[in-house]
Every structure is written in structure tokens, then in C-alpha cells.
Design a protein that fits this description.
Elements (H helix, E strand, L loop, with lengths): L18 E10 L2 E11 L4 E5 L6 H7 L10 E9 L2 E2 L7 H7 E4 L10 H11 L6 H11 L3 H4 L12 H13 L5 E5 L7 H14 L4 E5 L3 H7 L2 E7 L5 E8 H6 L4 H7 L5
Parallel strand pairs: 3-8, 3-9, 6-7, 7-8
Antiparallel strand pairs: 1-2, 1-4, 4-5, 9-10
Length: 268
């Protein structure tokens, strides 16, 4: 498949992208949610997906690791490439895709298990039998949670605070060593202090993991991301990509007047 031509306000990269969407559209039954989105996710960056409510940000994010497969009636047109290969190709196991491209949801969703078992769950399912304790500790350290829970690993994860639960979910994701982590408004249900902790964690993880984050918080996008994609609904209420570029450009000198109207609060 040839790479589609992109308009001037859609950034492209010289280096191979870790993820790339090509003319991606998602339908729920006969209703089109997003249409014709083509963009590249550069390796080792934090990409923010922004736009007004209802423009398809979460739908787009979930298409990047086939989470939409779990929604009855959902279907995809176009393609998503991971490392140059289609994740929607024949014979591709969606579960394997989701281990390689992990996801953190809007609300913390720890399993009703111990802290230890939450983090160990993924490696065990993948057949890992050795060094589980080392994997759990390493993952909790990377999620900046180890010092807070190291003395109560056998306690229920549900006893943690909301911010701790979200960092536990990130640790659970990290335990299977994904190359990409998708985050759907990971701090929207948290207080300001917990939000700061999640943002600091995102910046730290971005040193060796690619992150794609959906956020309604414009200041958060500027704080954590290097690249931003702006989605907007058209007159049919179908989400489209209108601009994609460096965060400084998107917020400082956007090329599309709709982007300017959104980031300055005139629409949204």
C-alpha cells in the first residue's frame, strides 16, 4: 500500500514511525465515528491527541491496539501499522497486539487482587515463570510506586488511593514490556497532586517508551507532549484530523483556524 499524501498541516517524519495510521476510519454499526486519519507516531515521543468532546479521540486511540474489536458492531477501514506491519492483518492476534501496545484507561481499573498479583498477571499469562519478583519490583519502580507499596505487596490493590491505583495500572502495563503505551485521559479522575505525579511519570517513561495520550487538558498536553494531533468533528459529527505537528506550533502558531479557535478556548 502506498503511503497516502498528507496535507501541509500534517507532520511527517524522516525516521520510520513506531505506529502509523493510513486512511483510518472507524464505524459503530452504520455510524462513522472517525474518518480517513493518516498520521505517524514517532518512536520515543509523547503524542497528545486533543480536540473537543465527541470528536473521536478515544475511538482513534482504541483503534491503535484493536481495543475497538471488543465493541459489538465496531469495524475499521484503512490500516494501522506497527513497526511497518499491519495490526489488522490476517492471522494477527489482537491479544499479542495489546501486550506490545499497552493501554491505561481514564479511570484506574486494578484487578481485585493483591498489588503483587496485579503486576505479575501479564508476565504469568505470557508464560513467564522465572524472575517474577524482579519483574514486579522493576515495574513498580518504573511506575514510581515501589517505595510506597514495597511493604504491602500482598495487600489488595483496591486499598490504594486513586493516584496509586493509576500508577499500579501503569506498572501492570509495563510488566509485559510494551514498546508503546496508550493513555486515555489517565489523570482526569485524579486530584491535582496525583495528576502531577502521573505527568512526571509520563515524562520519565518517555525516555524509553512511546506514549500516545488523549487529554482534554490543554496545559497538560503542553507539559507532557512533544507532538500534538488535533481532531475535530465535521458537519456530520464525524471526527477528522485537522492538524498534526510539534506542540509549540499547535499552541503557538497553528496553521488551521479551527485549531487556533480550539486552543484559545473559542470552541470546545
Amino acid at each position: 500500500m502506498n503511503q497516502p499524501t498528507r496535507p501541509e498541516n500534517i507532520l511527517t517524519f524522516d525516521e520510520p514511525a513506531v505506529l502509523e495510521t493510513r486512511s483510518l476510519s472507524v464505524f459503530y454499526g452504520s455510524t462513522k465515528a472517525i474518518s480517513g486519519i493518516s498520521l505517524q507516531v514517532p518512536r520515543g515521543e509523547v503524542v497528545a491527541i486533543i480536540g473537543p468532546s465527541g470528536c473521536g479521540k478515544s475511538t482513534f486511540l482504541r483503534s491503535l491496539n484493536r481495543m475497538n474489536d471488543l465493541v459489538p458492531g465496531a469495524r475499521v477501514e484503512g490500516d494501522v501499522l506497527y513497526g511497518g506491519a499491519s495490526i489488522y492483518g490476517a492471522g494477527v492476534d489482537p491479544t499479542d497486539v495489546r501486550y506490545r501496545i499497552g493501554m491505561v484507561f481514564q479511570r484506574p481499573n486494578p484487578f481485585p487482587k493483591t498489588i503483587y498479583d496485579n503486576v505479575a498477571f501479564g508476565p504469568r499469562v505470557n508464560g513467564v515463570k522465572e524472575n517474577i519478583e524482579e519483574i514486579v519490583e522493576h515495574s513498580l519502580r518504573r511506575a514510581a510506586l515501589w517505595d510506597e507499596v514495597k511493604d504491602r505487596l500482598k495487600s489488595s490493590a483496591l486499598d490504594l488511593s486513586g493516584g496509586q491505583q493509576q500508577r499500579l495500572c501503569i506498572a501492570r502495563c509495563l510488566a509485559v514490556r510494551p514498546e508503546v503505551i496508550l493513555m486515555d485521559e489517565p489523570a482526569s479522575s485524579l486530584d491535582p497532586i496525583a495528576t502531577q505525579a502521573i505527568e512526571a511519570l509520563i515524562r520519565d517513561l518517555a525516555q524509553d517508551v512511546t506514549i500516545v495520550i488523549v487529554t482534554h487538558n490543554m496545559q497538560q498536553a503542553q507539559r507532557v507532549a512533544s507532538v500534538a494531533a488535533v481532531l475535530m468533528s465535521d458537519e456530520r459529527r464525524v471526527g477528522e484530523l485537522i492538524e498534526y505537528g510539534p506542540v509549540d506550533q499547535i499552541f503557538g502558531s497553528p496553521r488551521d483556524p479551527r485549531t487556533e479557535a480550539y486552543v484559545t478556548g473559542r470552541i470546545g
